[in-house]
Amino acid sequence: MGRILSFATAVSVAILAGACTGQAVINNTDYYDTYNPMNFTLYHTGRDTELRVMGEASFGLDKADLGRAVGHAMYGEHTGRPSNFTLTPGPSAEKNLYVIMAFNVEEDRDLCQSAPELAPRPVTGRTILQGAWCWGEQTQSYVRAESPAARPGDAMFNRMVGAATRDLFAPNPDLELREEGDDSPIP
To answer: Are strands 126-135 and 3-6 parallel, antiparallel or unpaired?
Structure first.
């Protein structure tokens, strides 16, 4: 399955830009050919959405605490009525759709198929987030963001997760590719 859009940027430029400015950046967003922005509205708004998190060890947290922090940071960061992103969705959740938010794990744009096998990355003084919106094992959208060492619950972490959420569920993804090195700083 191919990607129809890719806002790819040079990771080295992103690291350099983020390191120099001390701010978080979104440095990659991919929308796959099955991506339909209306699916979020149809299947997630006003309902529970299954959230799968990885990388809790890099923060010294258990999965439940990381899940609560990530779900809180994601809440309301998309168009439409809010969705409740949770590790334990109730009966309102669409069973085949879920979101993965993986922190400080090896890079893989196909998180929907490979997430359980991803190994932790070495600690670098930066927090790296990879997120994916999945329909079964098919990736609908993928985002990569990074920031100076952010911790769950702090303002930098919440801004990075919020921006990644907005990109994962973009209602009108920009159809033009970004120029290489055109990172999107997170305000």
So the answer is: unpaired
User: DSSP class of residue 93?
Assistant: S
Phi, psi of 71 (to 5 degrees): -60, -40
User: What SS3 string covers 108-173?
Assistant: CCCHHHHHHHCCECCCCCEEEEEEEEEECCEEEEEEEEEEECCCCCCHHHHHHHHHHHHHHCCCCC
Question: Other C-beta atoms within 10 Å of 12: how many?
Answer: 10
- Using an 8 Å Cβ cutoff, are 48 and 171 in contact? no
Question: Cβ(159)–Cβ(24) under 8 Å?
Answer: yes
| Alpha-carbon distance values, 76 to 5, 88, 89, 179 (Å) | 25, 18, 17, 29
Query: 104, 127 in Cβ contact below 8 A?
Result: yes
Contacts of 129 (CB under 8 A, 6+ apart): 101, 102, 103, 143, 144, 145, 146, 160, 161, 164
**Does the structure show a pLDDT above 90 at 180?**
no
Asked if residue 120 lies in contact with residue 105, where contact means CB atoms within 8 angstroms, the answer is yes
Q: Read off the pLDDT of each residue in 64-76 and give the average, rounded to a whole number.
A: 93
| Token reading at 147 | 């920031």
- Give the Cα separation of 102 and 160 in Å (integer): 13
Between 98 and 40, residue with greater pLDDT: 98
- Find residue 185's DSSP bridge partners: 25
